[in-house]
Each structure stands twice: as C-alpha cells, then as structure tokens.
Write a structure and sequence with these properties.
The complex is a heterodimer of chains A (288) and B (354). Chain A is built from nine helices and eleven strands. With 288 residues, chain A is α+β, with helices and mostly antiparallel strands. In chain A, the strands form three sheets. In chain A, strands 1-4-5-6-7-8 form a six-stranded mixed sheet, sandwiched between helices. The longest helix of chain A is centred in the last third of the chain and has 25 residues, at 215-239. By secondary structure, chain B is α+β, with helices and mostly antiparallel strands. In chain B, strands 1, 2, 3, 4, 5, 6, 7, 8, 9, 10 and 11 form an eleven-stranded antiparallel sheet that branches. In chain B, strands 13-14-15-16-12-17-18 form a seven-stranded antiparallel sheet. Classes of the chains: A alpha+beta (288), B alpha+beta (354). Chain A binds chain B through residues 14-15, 17-21, 34-35, 129, 159-160, 162-166, 175, 178-179, 181-183, 185-186, 189-190, 204, 206-209, 212, 263-264, 267-268, 270-271, 274, and chain B through 243, 245-252, 272-274, 281-286, 288-291, 293, 295-297, 299, 302-304, 306, 308, 310, 315, 317, 319-321, 324, 347-351.
Chain lengths: 288, 354
C-alpha cells in the first residue's frame, strides 16, 4: 500500500511551523521559537534523540516521526520522564511553565490509538498526498490544550507541503539522485572547476542549515551521497565524453569541470542520470 | 543619438545642473504648448549584491568612469561622453542608473549589462506595488503587456496596450480599465503630482524598475519618487529575506488563474536552458497531480532556489544564507505577470507584498 514517505512527513511537520501555510498548528498554539531537529540529550544516565523539539515561553513539545509499524514503544515512552530544563543543554530557552507534550507523527501503519498508548504520546497521521489525516488524543501526555484544539481540527485534506528540504537521512534511490541534481547545478555555476566534499552536499540538501539533523544522520547521508557521486562520475564522464567529475581518494573530494559544456547539455545529461528508467522511487523505512 | 552636452559631466553638481536645464526647458514647453522639448529622463533601479565589484566590470562597448564624486560614475560609449550616470552611494543595495539618451539605447544597455552580470539584477515592481503607487499618486495611464509566449506557437497571442488620460476617467473608461486590470497585471503606470492645481511632475513607473520622467518642476520631484521606490523595494526585500530558509514563512505567489499544463511545460523549458528573462536554471524534482517541484540555481547570484508549482500558487524555496537574494521572488512574480493571465500576487508569511 502506498503511504507517505519520511521526506514528505518531515516536510509536513516543517510546514506546520511555516507562517503562511494554510495549516500551522505549532504557530497557532504559540510555538514560535526555532525548532531543534534531532538533538542529542543525555539525562539521568540515558541517551535521548527525539526527532524535533519545539518550544514557547510557557511550554514545550517533543516530536517524533515514524513510518515503522514495529517501532519499539519504549523508544518514545521514555521521553515522558524528561524535564524541561534539559532544553538548556541543547541551546534552547527553558520555558517558564512545564507544559509538556509528546506527539508522534506517522502513517496509518505506524500510528494508531493503541500505539499511542504504548508511546505515551498523542498521534497525528498524515495520509498519502496529505489526505485522510487523523489525530489520536492522549490527555496525559498532550498537556497543551491549544495544541489539542489545533490537532482536533486537522483537516482531512492538506495541500502538498513546501519542499523546504531536498532530502532527509532516510531518502535513498531515485529521490536522492534527483535531490542531488540542483546541488550539482549549483557547483557547476560556481566556475569552471569546483572541488567539494560529500558532506557539503548533505548541508545543501538540508536547506543549507548545518545545525539540523544529528551528526550520525548526516554521516549516514554522506555515505549514500558519496556512492551516488561515484556512480555519477562513471556514467556522466562516459555520457559527456570528457572528464566531468573526478574523485581524489586521499582527500575524499570530488571535482567538477565544466569548461566547454553548455547548460542545456549538462542539464540533459545529469537529469538523465538522475532518472534511471528501471529504478523505482523508494525510501527505506525509518529506523529512528 | 543626441548628446545633451559636449563636455563630460564629472560630478553630481554638473549632472544636476544639466538635469535642471532639461527639466526647466521641458516644463516651460509643457506649460506653454502641452509638449516637451528635450528627451525624457530615464532612471533604472538596479539591485546589486554585495559581491558585485564595479572595478571588475569588463568593458563591452562602454566604459564606466569614476568622477570627482565618490560613488558617482559616468558611463561613456562610442556615441556619447555622457551616455549615463550611475549613483552607487545613495543606497548600496539599490543603485540608480540614469540616462538622457533615448529609451532604445538606455533600455538596451541596462538589459544587456544587468541580465548578463552576476550579482546585478533589475528591481522588479510587482503588480501590488504598482497598485499601491496608483493610489498614492494621480493616475494618468496604464501599460499592459501580455506575451503569452508560453502558449502553443500557432495560437500564441501578444496583447499590448497603453492607455493614457489627462484627467478624470469617464464612467465607461473606468469600466474598461477595471476589466483590463482584472485580467492583466500592470506593466507600467503613468502618474502625476499636482500642487495648487498645477502639474509639477509627470512620470511613468515600469515593472522592470525603470522610471521615466516626462517633466518635473525640478530634480527634487524625481529624487523623491526614486527615494520612495527604493524604500518600498528594500522593505519588500527585507520581508522576503527575513523569511528565507527552512523555518521562514511561506514565500508564495498566489495565482488568480491556474497555469495550464501545456504552458507549464513551456515555462520549464525556459528553466532547462537557464534562459532570460527568468535567470533560473532548474530541473524537475517531482511531478504529481497536486504539485510540480522544480529546483536549481538562481543565475543572478548562483544560489539554490526551488519552485513548488500547484494549481493556485507557486511557493519559492530559498536558502537562508546571506547570498540567497530575495530579488528572485520579486523577479519571478513580476515576470509571471507578463506570461500568465490574471494576477500573480506575492505573499510572504501570509502577508501581501506591496
């Protein structure tokens, strides 16, 4: 069954903070401060890596995203013990009051009433194409009434979410290939020769923000991107009949050479590489 | 090409003196005959990013020469010592190029220079900005220019219209005007300033940042309107740039009429080649029934930019770096007004940009 993938799910969660998007529950409930994505928290001897934390002067919320139907409830329920002052450890302001909420976003397969009981959280289901959305309340763990009102009013159908980011750590396959193309365009436009490391592409895919997603996630992305660039090097050098991409094993850097190549030629060759006929669009199930 | 002065103008003072002379003759002539004698004064507002260095401009049939005044440059070409003047000190982001030469020459110069130079762009006055100006000054005319070049070549139509008036519109004239404004966006506006029932300033503002002064009582009138436009434009840029990045508000062009699928394909072919006037080099990320995501580079600054095209709107995704220039949103919005029917208004974080 087709369901929303992790990139689209992230895009919806990000768009809920975006002023001007038709549905902005976080903003409407007062969470106007900049969210933190994938912070690493150490508390009481335990490690915690929620997907996102949002806050306001009075309250805060821990947000997790999952498409994994087998997700261990304990991986989320442990957040219920976290006190507000841990925000100080991740560079966030500590809210005055301790109104805390835990919300899990996912699909019909990964989030339902029973699972939310296990997660000790409320749940929001975003359907494919933003349709068939649902809200599972859990008063003990969703302490913010304003946010409750917002999610009770989640429309059955949402418009698509803005692109915001080009990939997330779970993005693979054709979708990742396509995401890399605009970054290659960017490097092509920067001059006749451009040397870069795969980690720079990661930053570009994540909206140019070096602070979002954990180091672990970024490294995971970096590995996938390096492999794809190796593939691009093979295929594009052949297709363009010249040395277009090279790789320096010592420095682990790639270099792009564009002399004598028109934008149209490059566009067509790279787009063709990013769109292999046989490979289906796929993303892995999230493991977080 | 007519040269207004044999002698090279080498300071702001000399420039203003020539400007006053032209304006005085035109004003007298207009008062007496309802006509003007000398060429109109053309000003072009040019958006310039910090990285642009005027010292590195390669000569290309013209020379940019320093004058006695810092930040005030004279542009000389083969025909004229005083082809134009560039004011870079008044505002470091929005530069002012002015010329006494006929539009044919000055338009062509600005088009070639600005659109082929990284970190320079025109200032793009979007429909809602022009609508605001229309209310602020006395309306004396409108220009519409609809290219329809995205349509099928055989069915392609170009609709161009200039409507001028010297007084209040009759009821039927106003009806025609409203009908046109519902369907098309403003390409230019002719506006007037009056004092004690006498005309003091007649000028035309174009969506591509050009301002033509037909006559003005003195240079102050011209400088005031340019200052007003620069202030408005910078406010729009600030609003857009505050909302860049993942956590910024939505930068959205709301379309009153959806772009037909066939035209969307033509629009994408502009982007595939990185062609003017959009200055975007893009590739398709994803196409579904609800959304068409395209992403690539803004050739004005060489920064990443994305467009999400839905039935009712276009969302502009840009990075939050200091080099990610908000001018792209104004450029795309303004140009779409010439290529798609109906209005294409720019909203940032849900607020209409005016």
């Amino acid at each position: 069954m087709y369901e929303i993938d992790s990139l689209d799910l992230w895009r919806y969660v990000i768009s809920f903070t975006k002023r001007g998007f038709p549905y902005t529950p976080f903003l409407n409930a007062g969470y106007a401060r900049r969210p933190v994505i994938e912070p690493h928290i150490n508390y009481d001897g335990g490690d915690f890596s929620p997907d996102m934390i949002i806050s306001s002067p009075e309250k805060w919320a821990i947000i997790d995203l999952t498409l994994n139907p087998e997700k261990d409830p304990e991986s989320v329920s442990k957040y219920s013990h976290l006190p507000k002052n841990i925000l100080a450890d991740i560079g966030m302001k500590v809210p005055r009051a301790d109104i805390k909420s835990v919300i899990v976003f996912g699909s019909d397969n990964s989030v339902n009433e029973e699972k939310c009981r296990g997660f000790k959280s409320a749940g929001v289901v975003i359907g494919p194409d933003g349709e068939g959305n649902k809200f599972y309340d859990n008063k003990d763990y969703l302490q913010d009434d304003k946010l409750r009102v917002e999610f009770n009013g989640i429309p059955d159908s949402l418009p698509p979410a803005p692109t915001s980011i080009l990939a997330v750590p779970e993005t693979t396959g054709k979708r990742l290939r396509k995401a890399i193309v605009p970054v290659l365009f960017l490097y092509i436009e920067s001059g006749e020769k451009r040397t870069f490391h795969a980690s720079e592409i990661v930053t570009e895919l994540l909206g140019g923000d070096e602070r979002i997603f954990s180091l672990h996630s970024r490294q995971k992305m970096e590995g996938g991107i390096r492999n794809l660039l190796m593939d691009a090097m093979q295929e594009l050098n052949k297709k363009l009949k010249k040395r277009f991409i090279t790789y320096n094993q010592k420095t682990e850097e790639f270099t792009i050479y564009t002399k004598g190549l028109s934008r149209t030629r490059l566009h067509d060759a790279i787009t063709e590489w990013s769109n292999p006929a046989k490979e289906a669009v796929s993303t892995t199930l999230d493991q977080f | 090409m007519t040269s207004v002065s044999e002698k090279a103008i080498n300071s702001r003072e000399e420039y203003f003196s020539v400007l006053e002379d032209i304006l005085e003759k035109n004003y007298e002539s207009y008062e007496m005959y309802g006509k003007w004698k000398r060429p109109h004064i053309k000003n072009y507002l040019i958006e310039r990013n910090e990285q642009f260095d005027i010292k590195k401009v390669k000569e290309n049939g013209y020379k940019i020469l320093e004058t006695e005044d810092r930040g005030f440059f004279r542009i000389k070409n083969n025909e004229s010592e005083n082809f134009g003047f560039l004011e870079t000190e008044r505002d470091e982001r929005i530069w002012r190029f002015s010329s006494f030469a006929p539009s044919y020459y000055s338009d062509s110069f600005v088009e070639k220079w600005v659109t082929s130079t990284r970190y320079l762009d025109r200032s793009w006055f979007i429909n809602s900005t022009l609508a605001t100006l229309e209310k602020r000054y006395i309306f004396r005319g409108i220009g519409l220019d609809f290219y329809d070049s995205l349509g099928d070549a055989a069915e392609r139509n170009r609709f161009s219209l200039k409507m001028w008036t010297s007084g209040e519109l009759e009821e039927y004239q106003d009806k025609i005007l409203q009908l046109l404004k519902d369907k098309f966006s403003r390409r230019s506006l002719r506006l007037q300033e009056m004092e004690e029932e006498r005309s003091k300033h007649l000028f035309e503002v174009y969506s591509n940042g050009k301002v033509t002064t037909t006559f003005a009582k003195n240079p102050t009138y011209i400088m005031n309107i340019l200052s007003d436009l620069i202030t408005r434009y910078k406010k729009s840029l600030e609003l857009i740039e505050e909302n860049r990045g993942i956590w910024g508000g939505l930068i959205e062009i709301r379309l009153s009429e959806p772009i037909p699928e066939s035209k969307l394909d033509s629009l994408l072919s502009f982007f595939r080649k990185g062609q003017n006037p959009f200055r975007l080099w893009m590739t398709e990320l994803e196409k579904t029934e609800k959304i068409h995501r395209i992403y690539g580079v803004d050739l004005h600054t060489g920064q990443k930019i994305g467009l999400d095209i839905t039935k009712d709107s276009i969302w502009i995704n840009m990075g939050s770096g200091k080099d990610d220039c908000g001018n792209a949103a104004l450029r795309i919005s303004s140009l779409l007004n010439s290529y798609v029917l109906g209005s294409a208004e720019l909203y940032v974080g849900g607020v209409l940009v005016v």
